[in-house]
Amino acid sequence: xxxxxxxxxxxxxxxxxxxxxxxxxxxxxxxxxxxxxxxxxxxxxxxxxxxxxxxxxxxxxxxxxxxxxxxxxxxxxxxxxxxxxxxxxxxxxxxxxxxxxxxxxxxxxxxxxxxxxxxxxxxxxxxxxxxxxxxxxxxxxxxxxxxxxxxxxxxxxx
Length: 158
Prior knowledge:
Cytochrome Bc1 Complex, Chain A, domain 1, 62% helix, mainly alpha, globular
């Protein structure tokens, strides 16, 4: 499932990335906790998973996120970014991204500070701005073994 989001050069990028981390980043994320532990629907059906995601978004819109939850998301996200940059390939990729996508090679020196500055209120604001009540694209993927069973019956031709 995906929603229309702004350019990566948008000032909302950091807050959206952290909102994604809070909702779906790892086993302690809201979605994982809800689907696997609370509702135990992770293996069942897509509509239940979609409803759970919508419920979690609504909870954030209503109650926000705690500072502890935001700090945890920042730590996970920033640790991932720093680990990516530990290798020569990761450094080259981050520098190339800064130069080509952000049109500013110095972006590599300032991007992580933007994530550290995100507030809990910004998470709520970007979800409201880009997600709540907005159109989305949902792609359902069926493994090869289940595709035949899901095909609609074709009318027999005389």
